[in-house]
Amino acid sequence: MIEDKNQQRTQLSDLGEFGLIDHLTKNFKIKQSSTVKGIGDDAAVLNFEDQKVVVTTDLLVEGVHFDLSYVPLKHLGYKAVVVNLSDVYAMNAKATQVTVSIAVSNRFPLEALEDLYAGIETAAKIYDIDVVGGDTTSSNTGLLISVTALGALSEDDVVYRNGAKPNDLLVVTGDVGAAYMGLQVLEREKEVYKVNPNNQPDLEPYTYIVERQLKPEARKDIKELLKGLDVKPTSMIDVSDGLSSEIIHLCKQSDVGCDLYENKLPLDPQVISVCEEFNIDSTTVALNGGEDYELLFTISQEDFMKIKGNPNFSIIGFMKESKEGMHLVTRADTRIPIKAQGWKNFND
Amino acid sequence: MIEDKNQQRTQLSDLGEFGLIDHLTKNFKIKQSSTVKGIGDDAAVLNFEDQKVVVTTDLLVEGVHFDLSYVPLKHLGYKAVVVNLSDVYAMNAKATQVTVSIAVSNRFPLEALEDLYAGIETAAKIYDIDVVGGDTTSSNTGLLISVTALGALSEDDVVYRNGAKPNDLLVVTGDVGAAYMGLQVLEREKEVYKVNPNNQPDLEPYTYIVERQLKPEARKDIKELLKGLDVKPTSMIDVSDGLSSEIIHLCKQSDVGCDLYENKLPLDPQVISVCEEFNIDSTTVALNGGEDYELLFTISQEDFMKIKGNPNFSIIGFMKESKEGMHLVTRADTRIPIKAQGWKNFND
């Protein structure tokens, strides 16, 4: 919301498509041994030896998934990569490569795309992955980013959504609801800015939740963490659309039911206080907020002692027979059926 | 350009995102042995055993790459897959899987997306590949399709762009320039239609070139064909941006020059006659038209007898030392430097 009046502006048409790709990716280094050939041919060539390969893809669309009035392009590039890696980690795989395609209107100068790619490069560094391909093209309107992520794992390590059994424990990493409340704060500040553009937003009290929204992290660490504890989840999914929605996916695909305990939901203190400030129910936010990019998984009861008390994990419920349905057990000990809300893009 | 007044229209919001993906992909069958798990989890799981993997991605944007006033959605879905497979074949790999993501505005009814996916499904059937993932989201304006294609090959089979040597022969499959002239015909008919919407276009004399534009095919057959002839190209690329542009890529990446013979350029008779009709130079069209999705490759002179006279291939020139540059040798035996024109999207 703070404009730099001295921005350099280089027209994209000054470079042309090939010049643009070359320019944006020239600093990208290949680090993964599985990358035989990265950007620069008709396709990348990868060597996974006897490992299995996972592949996942996501689109981020301006005006639907992000609002450039408060999302810095560097953060956007970072986030576009991270949300895809999260899906790779949800298979219990190691992320290895991404391809990144963008469609962008002429209103963006080259410097804006450089920021976007700086974020992509930072994510690639931090998550130790290679950017091995992509496409850049013009669009008639806004910005769109399409990322495909690849990962590798040994066959024994694969964790699907469909392996949960009755009595398995339901576990979530980190905390939930923060990204959604970060979005509420940013949306509010945007409205304030519209009325008074000289008003500098004070985001200090909201640092954690704003960062969770603008610069989420994927749980690269969980695979190793669980391996070290000798725990293999029976099912797993990442929390992108909201906890409720993901629980429903696990239950439906595993053909089980579930009891989820409201008092076990991991909420950051900042989420609780901002929920009070906004007069929003924090449980609703935890269940339906989404964009947490935490991992939700189930483990056998036998593994309970291995993760009990571990600060990375919260045991939030347990699985039941399918016919018993999916319920939230509230603090008042009432049982409410779990419904997905998620991101209903097409209702916008 | 012919509107069906009785179209059924189902709003996308009636299904929601998950319902939409399920609905659109419910008929997709898994056929590749390398697909362990397709659509339905956080990521697809693939098993390439000891094969190398190639991955490539392309974006198609409404108003930039296609015009829905004359491109049927079914053809568009087909083409979106095929243009990516073309890149896989250009590595001398076998195409195995694709992911397909779409961003679409609410102005499209469900039936339109069903047509698009019918085209994707047809391409998957014909090219024997699996659709293993994707994403659907709303967009504020038009339609955008992002496809990532995967392929497999043994290490010995990989053909890069950078292996051409001086004296190698330059070979192209099929013929070139037809897709571009097909586009000219469709653009002209669109203008006629704008003036008189009752005027039914007669595309009969343009069948071949219009089909090359609307429903291009990728050269799945070339890998086996060359293997049967015991020929391994020294370098290869697919012709998407235009022959000139692709020749320049091969030369630059291989550090060689090239003489290209105007009288050897393979042109379909329909292209020649429509070029006359439009008063366009057919050589310019052959060199800069693009969207041919043929394969351009170089072979050692030793392999000359193996492909000489083969109707699938035209020997159009030969490679030289880098310092001799890249030239078109005209029918009048003058030498003109080769320049790329290609698709300059950002200049539009």
From TrEMBL, chains A, B:
One of its GO terms (molecular function) is ATP binding. Substrate binds at residues 65, 291, 343. Pfam families: AIRS (PF00586). Mg(2+) 2 binds at residues 58, 87. Residues 40-152 form the PurM-like N-terminal domain. Mg(2+) 1 binds at residues 57-58, 135. Pathway: Cofactor biosynthesis; thiamine diphosphate biosynthesis; thiamine diphosphate from thiamine phosphate: step 1/1. The keyword Nucleotide-binding applies. Mg(2+) 5 binds at residue 241. NCBIfam families: thiL. Belongs to the thiamine-monophosphate kinase family. This is Thiamine-monophosphate kinase. It comes from Algibacter mikhailovii.
